[in-house]
Amino acid sequence: MNALLSVSDKTGIVEFAQALHALGIKLISTGGTAKLLAGLGLPVTEVAELTGFPEMLDGRVKTLHPKVHGGLLARRDLPEHMAALKAHQIDTIDLLVVNLYPFEATVAKAGCTLEDAIENIDIGGPAMVRSAAKNWKDVGVLTDASQYEGVLAELKADGKLTDKTKFALSVAAFNRISQYDGAISDYLSSLNFEEGNNTPSRQLFPAQANGRFVKLQDLRYGENPHQQAAFYRDLYPAPGSLVTAQQLQGKELSYNNIADADAAWECVKSFDGAKDGTACVIVKHANPCGVAVGADPLEAYSKAFSTDPTSAFGGIIAFNRPLDERAALQVSKQFVEVLMAPDYTPEALAVFKSKVNVRILKISLPAGGASDWDNGRNAVDVKRIGSGLLMQTADNHQLGLSDLKVVTKKQPTPEQLQDLLFAWKVAKFVKSNAIVFCKGGMTMGVGAGQMSRLDSARIASIKAQHANLSLSGTAVASDAFFPFRDGLDVVVDAGASCIIQPGGSMRDQEVIDAADERGVAMVFSGVRHFRH
Question: How many CA atoms, within 13 angstroms, populate the side-chain half-sphere of residue 495?
Fold first, then answer.
């Protein structure tokens, strides 16, 4: 048996080559890999010796040769193939170990030049991988160090690889080539080429988009039982994102669980534990039905739950800080579909041991802590439409006090300003048209997803009444401007004392005059937060 080893990333290759040699497998290798193995005393045939042709063009051409590809592509079950190998003195290659030039890592570096990128496009490696993967019944092809251990175990046990293993390796190899070519296409088609400029600027949206996703699991069904579904993650997921979650207990996640969990997790991530305190978000049908901050998880949860206890039944709950026993005991009193937090105390997990159906997810913080969650947000949002995609930069806008423009005679108090910012942060995650009443670091009424902003305002106030919450003195956020004064009148009639909205309507002055007439403060954010 012959094995050809040609790797850019040398992780584990020495130990793997030593094990192959111990099994009596002949080693063939290229360039730096051959020198490394020979330097350690392993008998290795350099590819130039095999082909009778030296490497050339600074290594651009070394394995593109019939003695390599013939040995990989020849079908052992076809006498004419084997006769052709014999006639041309070509040996079979039964095992190929290749990982590719680090193109993705190269273009991810700041200041990467076009020349650097081009020189890190592997040619010979992908060609060999494709040859070996095509001829999977006769050749095992390894494209990642994580495969070494399993292949060695099988070779040691049986002296050969099963067809099942070789086919799985082939699929993984073609997937790797697809990922590699997609990365090259994404990079090159995003460049704004300028004559004589070796560091061209890049467009955010490339001329061709090549999505690369890895299936995590098949789901029981989609939004409805008659629909099929599966759950995928980005090839390189952002730290602290839902797809990195570890499920500690509970039933299998459903399609709707995952969609709602993502809405809750992205909302709770917008609250910085160090600055805002512990935050709790309760989501039902993709909309926050209760959001609050508190001194600890118990206070945050209690306030969030009190916003809308009816909707919270069977909801998705997320915390931005580790969950302790006191909060767990309170949460466990209600029916919960999914619970998420960066971590849990052992006592908190023990509380849910008897609640075997509750899905408990642990989503570890990024290396820099909760303050780095913003760095893990999606840069681009994608929505599928008929035979196409809509792509946009994600709505990651952060609003600060200095961004607010007071437009009324009445100035908001410092406490009201904090409530306005809190309400604005929540409204960003509520389906449009969104109206959110808040006070004291908690939501008091949420109106979501209505065709009329007036109806959203009325629904928010009705929900507050059902929860026995007074809206007197509340802050209200509207995700888009009030086109007429009637929307402002509705929220003020309900008890609002201050309002935040984007502004930008041709009737802004009419709405400002109405706010002055009603004696409430109003600020413009200058930013709209439609969410569809």
Answer: 18
Three-state SS at 189: coil
Q: How confident is the model at residue 57 (pLDDT cuts 50, 70, 90)?
A: confident
Residues found in the chain:
532
Domain extent at residue 93: 2-201
Closest CA to 280 of 439, 478, 441, 462: 441
How far is Cα 507 from Cα 400, in angstroms, rounded to an integer?
A: 25
162 shares a domain with 16: yes
- Mapping DSSP to helix (H, G, I), strand (E, B) and coil, where does residue 115 land? helix
What tokens does 14 get? 């020495």
User: What is the helix, strand, coil percentage profile of the chain, to 5?
Assistant: 40, 20, 40
Catalytic residue among 134, 251, 355, 410: 134
Same domain, 248 and 193: no
Q: Please tell me whether residues 310 and 412 are part of one structural domain.
A: no
Whether 218 maps to a domain, the answer reads no
* Active-site residue, 405 included: no
| Confidence at residue 375, expressed as pLDDT on a 0 to 100 scale | 58
Residue 271 scores a pLDDT above 80: yes
One-letter identity of residue 325: E
Q: How far apart, in whole angstroms, are the C-alpha atoms of residue 156 and residue 305?
A: 58
Give yes or no: residues 25 and 123 share one domain: yes
Q: pLDDT tens digits, residue range 477-502?
A: 999 999 999 999 999 999 999 999 99
Specify the CATH number for the domain of residue 419. Answer: 3.40.140.20
In this prediction the pTM is 0.86
Q: Which two tokens stand for residue 184?
A: 């090259």
Res. 159: pLDDT tops 70: yes
Identified catalytic residue from 21, 26, 251, 285:
285
Tens of pLDDT, residue by residue over 439-472, are: 999 999 999 988 988 999 999 999 999 999 999 9
Contact between residue 173 and residue 143 where contact means Cβ atoms under 8 Å apart: yes
Report the domain count for the chain.
3
Same domain, 169 and 254: no
> Is 472:465 a contact under the CB 8 Å cutoff?
no
Beta strands 44-46; 95-99: pairing state: unpaired
Task: Give me the amino acid identity at 35.
Answer: K
Residue 285 catalytic? yes
* Domain-ending residue, one of 319, 344, 368: 368
